[in-house]
Target: 3-methyl-2-oxobutanoate hydroxymethyltransferase
Amino acid sequence: MSEEAAPYRASERKRVRTVTLQQMKERGERFTMLTSYDMYTAEIFDEAGIETLLIGDSAGNNVYGYETTLPITLDEMIPLVRAVAGAAKHALVVADLPFGSYQESPAQAFASAARLMKEGRAHAVKLEGGAHMAPTVEHLAKNGIPVVAHIGFTPQSEHALGGYRVQGRGDAAARLVEEAKTLERAGAFCVLMEMVPAPAAKAVTEALRVPTIGIGAGPDCDGQVLVWQDFAGLRDGRYPRFAKKFADVRTVLLDAARAYHEDVSSGAFPATEHSFEN
Model:
């Protein structure tokens, strides 16, 4: 069998590092990020070749059932991070710093990020905010903590921003580029943009040496991220405009649960083959 025709083996893959993403940008290659909050999704996404896994503070909505991301705490995040990090053999594992765990000072941010890396075993952290967060990014980066900077719409600031609104329109696009460059200079190894007009996101991507990740930021970012419950069609209700459903997991689980309920109610399960004999 030729080398080109050889079957893909996940065991041959190396661990994705921050420099891996940088090298992919330099080669013009796109990469993927998905959220993950447990060992099973982490294992599956890792096997599929997803380069980066994000334990987002979106776990507040998608795991704990909060209305927003704001209530989730560092103590609630750490077990989820540890589960994902333990299951992912190849992907770069990034953990969100939740609201209130880093805004007070660079020292507070370092203490929180250190817990995510020591107790959660994350490889990097993500924090929200523009140029005003540069001193915090610099402090973390200089002390050995890789940082993804999150600009554009920042969910932790939804009340200050007046709700879920696109950021970086019109004259604000130039300011977005400058904020991204400031965060890059501070030491961020990657910049994530959320709900940003595609032309603005393209301008940021072209202006930066480090890679960009988009969610609702058009096709020109170096990487793309989605919440896994959105991409897999797990949740009900209205989906964000930028989310594409690649499966309908909700219907599969709903049909399976209904079939299980029916079989137990009718006595069809457990059958002889599911039981033990003396």
User: Anything to note?
Assistant: Residues 1-8 have pLDDT under 50 and may be disordered. DSSP finds eleven helices and eight strands in the chain.
